[in-house]
Write a structure and sequence with these properties.
Isoleucyl-tRNA Synthetase, Domain 1; 3-stranded antiparallel sheet; 5-stranded parallel sheet; Gyrase A, domain 2; about 575 residues
Length: about 575
């Protein structure tokens, strides 16, 4: 149990005891929340429950706090309980209990940070899902870092998580992609083929056309044009997806499922879901189109589902994006039975959010089961100047190029350092620095420093065997333990609030506290008189290594043994 939950139980016990002793009037016991106070001098934890109980208890909040503090049962974790104005109960944790938590961390090992949820859920996290018509961008990298970190945190919270990439392999953009590839393929064969006005530009399209010409000769040129465009488009999508999967693997990002948008139409699922909406009288046919009657559900305007009734079953000319989204949410929550579906979308899709939630409600699904996380985009800077173009091609900077320049660890770490609703200024110069100015280097160096300490101890024959953690009484030692114990709370916060930026912030703070401890407390001493303290401190740094490594792992970042 998290210590905050344990303290909350103590507060509830104290309320019941105070009522039994007639120190407080009888009233139903409320849900109690315990939080970290804003200032360290106020204690380790505090509850503001008395402020909310004044009316029910018919007492001043401070008097309620005093009654609670007086009736907190003795507990090994608690050294001191005080009441403070205007109505807080403050807790100071016991030094002896804190020291014993080192053994708890060592026993948990790489699973330290795991939390048992109130209810186990089957959750799907869908992320990246970039159109498979070109290489991944830096923005897609932020999507990947956010989604994969959330999936890691949700697993640590005890849920079953499926990671999914939604492949937009249907619709007009696929046809435009195929037309672009056909033109470049034909040109590579020396044919006089004009490039479509609305085609996909870029050196990568030229390179793919040349590759297809080398690989297939004039095979596609001799086909009926529509068939060649369709088949080249599908070949191109498959190639882009293979390249994107390789790029994401460099970031330690993996998927359990690559879900085809085409399958929503080819399986007949969209037609089934459209009929469900018709049955609810939420489909309108007007202006030679099929509309979702979103205004019936409180939205400002209706939305087109099918531009023409004739294309309902035609995946290559699929209905609108909303049509796919409606069928997809049904597929997630009903066909595949996920308890919860989490989407990670770019902020430019904000207008689609209320329509998807409304469609879920129209289909009889609880919209609370759907969470759509919007993230802002990334600005690259070098030398204080905005970088928009690739040095190599003169076009947009790809995710691959960013990884090549700064490394996968810096990419993953720095792309989640800000809240998803804030833009990120990614400083390329800082990302490659070997200094405290580079946050990922700063954290990884702390882990490498611990590895170096343990290696040095082993060379001297010093071990943690038999170490007595009760000797850990120095303020810097206890501060480090307090910091390490926060990891489960951070995991819970990230997973429940869908806010991965708390992990890098915590990692930086933990690394700083470890560096401070290292300066104040010599770990390995050659003085025989200090042998017992050396063993205890080796246990402490082993625990710190576990917590730092787990924190980095949750972010998909390496925990290096040397720097």
């Amino acid at each position: 149990m998290l210590i905050k939950n344990h303290l909350a139980e103590l507060v509830k016990q104290a309320l019941a005891a105070a009522q039994n002793a007639n120190a407080l009037a009888a009233f139903p016991l409320p849900e109690v929340f315990v939080e970290r106070p804003q200032k360290k001098e106020w204690g380790d934890w505090a509850t503001a429950a008395p402020l909310k109980l004044a009316r029910a208890a018919k007492r001043a909040p401070l008097q309620i706090a005093q009654a609670i503090a007086a009736h907190i049962p003795p507990d090994e974790a608690v050294a001191q309980v005080t009441a403070s104005a205007p109505g807080f109960v403050n807790f100071v944790l016991s030094d002896a209990w804190l020291a014993r938590q080192v053994e708890t961390i060592l026993a948990a090992g790489a699973r330290f940070g795991d939390v048992t949820p109130a209810r186990h859920l089957k959750i799907q996290v869908e992320y990246v899902s970039a159109n498979p018509t070109g290489p991944l961008t830096v923005g897609s990298g932020r999507n990947a870092a956010i989604g994969d970190t959330l999936a890691n945190a949700l697993e640590a919270l005890g849920h079953t998580v499926q990671r999914e990439y939604y492949v937009n392999d249907a619709g007009s953009q696929v046809r435009h992609f195929g037309e672009s590839l056909f033109a470049r393929y034909a040109q590579a064969l020396g044919k006089d083929e004009p490039f479509p006005a609305d085609g996909y530009q870029g050196a990568y399209i030229v390179a793919m056309g040349q590759e297809f010409a080398r690989q297939y000769g004039d095979q596609y040129w001799r086909m009926p044009r529509a068939q060649a465009i369709r088949e080249l488009g599908r070949q191109g999508i498959a190639q882009v997806l293979r390249a994107n999967a390789a790029t994401l693997a460099r970031l330690n990002v993996r998927f359990d499922e690559w879900f085809s948008e085409r399958s929503l139409y080819e399986s007949g699922l969209f037609a089934q879901v459209l009929q469900k909406l018709r049955d609810q009288r939420l489909v309108i046919e007007k202006e030679d189109a099929v509309w979702f009657a979103a205004t019936e559900l409180g939205l400002a305007q209706d939305a087109v589902l099918v531009r023409s009734p004739q294309v309902i079953a035609e995946a290559d000319e699929r209905p609108t994006y909303l049509a796919s989204d409606v069928a997809y949410v049904w597929n997630k929550l009903v066909v595949r039975g996920f308890d919860r579906a989490i989407y990670v979308w770019g902020a430019d899709h904000h207008g689609d959010v209320p329509r998807v939630l409304a469609a879920a409600r129209a289909l009889g699904l609880d919209p609370a089961r759907v969470s759509i996380l919007l993230y802002q985009f990334v600005t690259l800077r070098r030398g204080g100047q905005v970088v928009r173009m690739s040095k190599r091609t003169g076009e947009f900077v790809t995710l691959d190029e960013l990884i090549e320049e700064v490394g996968p660890d810096a990419v993953r770490f720095m792309l989640i350092t800000q809240s998803a609703n804030a833009t990120i200024d990614f400083d390329l110069d800082v990302a490659v620095e070997h200094s405290d100015e580079n946050p990922v280097y700063y954290v990884q160096y702390a882990h490498a420093r611990i590895a170096s300490i343990l290696k040095h101890a082993a060379e001297l024959g010093a071990t943690s065997a038999g170490g007595d953690v009760s000797l850990l009484t120095h303020p810097a030692e206890l501060e480090l333990i307090r910091a390490m114990l926060r990891l489960p709370e951070i995991v819970e916060l990230v997973a429940t609030k869908l806010e991965p930026h708390h992990l890098p912030h915590y990692a930086i703070e933990l690394a700083g506290i470890f560096h401070s401890f290292y300066k104040q407390c010599r770990v390995v001493s050659s003085d025989p008189a200090d042998a017992a303290l050396t063993r205890a401190r080796l246990k402490l740094v082993q625990a710190a290594k576990i917590v730092l490594a787990r924190t980095l792992n949750l972010m998909g970042v390496r925990a290096p043994e040397a720097m």
